[in-house]
Amino acid sequence: MAKKVKKPKSTPNKKGFSLKLSQQNKIIFGGLLMLLSIALFFSFVSFYFTWQEDQSLLTEFANRNEQARNLLNKFGANVSHFVLYKGFGVSSIIFTFLLFITGLYLFLSMQKQGLLRKWIWGLVFIIWFSVALGFFASGQPLLGGMVGYEMNDFLQDYGGKVGVFLLLLFGLIVILVRLFQFSPDKAVAYLNDKGKSLASEFKNGKSAKVDDGDRENDILYTKEKEETPVVIDTYTHKKDIPVLAKEDDEEEFEVKVGAEEDTIAMEVEKIKEEKEESDNISDKLVEDFGEFDPTLELGNFKFPPLDLLDQHGASGGITINQEELEENKNKIVETLKNYKIGIAQIKATIGPTVTLYEIVPDAGVRISKIKNLEDDIALSLAALGIRIIAPIPGKGTIGIEVPNKNATIVSMRSVIASSKFQKAEMQLPIAFGKTISNETFVVDLAKMPHLLMAGATGQGKSVGLNAVLTSLLYKKHPAEVKFVLIDPKKVELTLFNKIERHYLAKLPDSEEAIITDNNKVINTLNSLCIEMDNRYELLKVAMVRNIKEYNAKFKARKLNPNDGHMFLPYIVLVIDEFADLIMTAGKEVETPIARLAQLARAIGIHLIIATQRPSVNVITGIIKANFPARIAFRVTSKIDSRTILDTQGADQLIGRGDMLFTQGNDVTRIQCAFVDTPEVAKITEFIGSQRAYPDAHLLPEYLGNDDSGTSIDYNISDRDAMFREAAEVIVIAQQGSASLIQRKLKLGYNRAGRIIDQLEAAGIVGPFEGSKARQVLVPDIYALDQLLSNESA
Ligand SMILES: Nc1ncnc2c1ncn2[C@@H]1O[C@H](COP(=O)(O)OP(=O)(O)OP(=O)(O)O)[C@@H](O)[C@H]1O
């Protein structure tokens, strides 16, 4: 420590220049260097204005009667002449910057790793710049200096002008790439980032920990400061460079703990960096691999083309003739007149199935009076399905809906092709059909969040269900949505069997994806409840509130698949003939459905329930409360209409896809889009013929209510190949969780779940305990070995 520095030639002296500088000496020496560099800078700059007049004084250094005009007088004139004229020309100003930085490093006791690099690059830059000026401004030797001029001359003798030019260009590229780390895409980010850290480093006077990455910092210093020349004093040169080259060499600079502590601060900065680090990992992953793309596995999947859908002869829009309109208008006006109701104004909006006549009655007419005339108006118009809306919400008019003589079929093709649907930025967009004003009606199933459909037989429910499923098939990739189809009638949804491995989800042990057996329905619903719980668990761990945020986070690679995270597809549960199910299974299905309806919205499970019989024992209070979005096709009685919609109106519909949709308060009349069975067949055929996933999406296994562990009877030979490894993992960790098996053995969730069930059957783990991990019943590996060998004996 007290060893003297291997100082060039100067004899070991007692005081002199020891490079082992104390804190005070560093400040003094650093300050001196900085001041010297400033003086030289001004001297160099003033040289360019005074050199001609000072020229004659260069030999008169000792003559005190002569005064030079240089800012540093004769000293300045001589040094400048030597460094600028005889040296490197204007680029020598960079020396002053290097000198200044060296002084600053000493003054602030900064760590000096970067300094040598600055000097090297500074010198390279000085030489390159000098040669470049010599080349481009050969008529101005003061710009390039003697060195620049001579080197140019020398190089041109061998390489000619072109050769020197190319050499300079190459030098420039090297400097840009190596010194400034230049690359077009990084340039912006780099400058922002490093600018900040540079500023804080200087501000704090602190030597921030310089790691490899910080070398870039140093470059910036150079970049910012180097533009001024410097005279390299012998001592600067001889001392500083070796000192800086050996950072670890304690001989060079004395490290005073107290002084160092002074400069340590900004814990805050460290915390920030830590935060950024975790962000950066995902950013880097995204940068390297792009966002996670769930559709990649079926990257070549093609959405069904529009051609698969028929026009249904309604390509030319709505057909209604003027006469019919006039006739209806006159009849309405007359009927009302008969009851002494005057009309101030009447307006017609023609829809595909019905025309809406909006009337503004004379002042003083009571609305209820018009409402009561509903049947009379229907009689006089001799038409079924007249509906009076008094008043039309938000419009201040009374609406009378009169069916068109020739209803226009709204083809599925027309609604799918509509730009409203095509451009819909929704999670689960559904094009139901067209409203009374002939607008395509598109809603987001994810926002509903569940849908109840009811209507008497033959009024268009099945077509409606097909319209919902078709909409989703046209808009969502198989990776994004999965259907669980329950069809007790066994014939309505069979066509969708073809897309089993693309879009359907099923229980692991079931053959058919479309569920037709009521017993299986119970298992499936309970399995969905387990899936819901699992998903909530994942959301909790990921600290997000819903599936949208979760998937966005997963796509941004901020959730690690090794921790059990995965991209979650939406699950749409479709139950046709719900009444039938309730009649046969009652509470057993109502409970899980109510649970799903109450809780599943956030995790992307959405229910669509269709029923023919809208009686209160089917659509119970608990179901209704959780299905704010409801669709009523034509029903036979007002009571049914009230059961479904809480208001009448559905009894006045005309059937064939004429429907009322409510999502809270408003009731909208819609003509459901028509999609025929052959069209659905073509679509499913088209999708089914493409490359698919190996299997349908598997739901978690549900083993029934009364399985308290022992009742699960797994055949030993049916056990998973990884059963033993899994058992060991569980026993060693003493934690019975499927996600542990998933992580350690890199298995999928479903398989891990199945193994857990097998472990339970084998008596290695206890029964399912909700969100807690299962109890491990085997204390150690030895006991496990014994248990398994007894089993096989
Ligand atoms: N949107 C529609 N546009 C035109 N016609 C329709 C529409 N919806 C249904 N229809 C006609 O009504 C018929 C019966 O429709 P659908 O099979 O959907 O009734 P449903 O309510 O499912 O009957 P069920 O409950 O007995 O199965 C269809 O065959 C079709 O001719």
TrEMBL record:
Q: Which UniProt keywords apply?
A: ATP-binding, Cell cycle, Cell division, Cell membrane, Chromosome partition, DNA-binding, Membrane, Nucleotide-binding, Transmembrane, Transmembrane helix
Annotated ATP binding sites: 455-462
| Transmembrane portions of the chain | 27-51, 88-108, 120-138, 158-180
Provide the membrane topology annotation.
Answer: Multi-pass membrane protein
Per the record, the major location class is membrane
Q: Does the keyword section mention Transmembrane?
A: yes
Q: Does the keyword Kinase apply?
A: no
Q: Which domain of life is it from?
A: Bacteria
Subcellular localization is given as: Cell membrane
Give every FtsK domain span.
438-642
What InterPro entries does the record point to?
A: FtsK/SpoIIIE/SftA, FtsK_4TM, FtsK_alpha, FtsK_dom, Ftsk_gamma, P-loop_NTPase, WH-like_DNA-bd_sf, WH_DNA-bd_sf
Family membership noted in the UniProt record:
Belongs to the FtsK/SpoIIIE/SftA family.
Protein name, per record: S-DNA-T family DNA segregation ATPase FtsK/SpoIIIE
State the species of origin: Arenibacter algicola
Q: What is the lineage of its organism?
A: Bacteria, Pseudomonadati, Bacteroidota, Flavobacteriia, Flavobacteriales
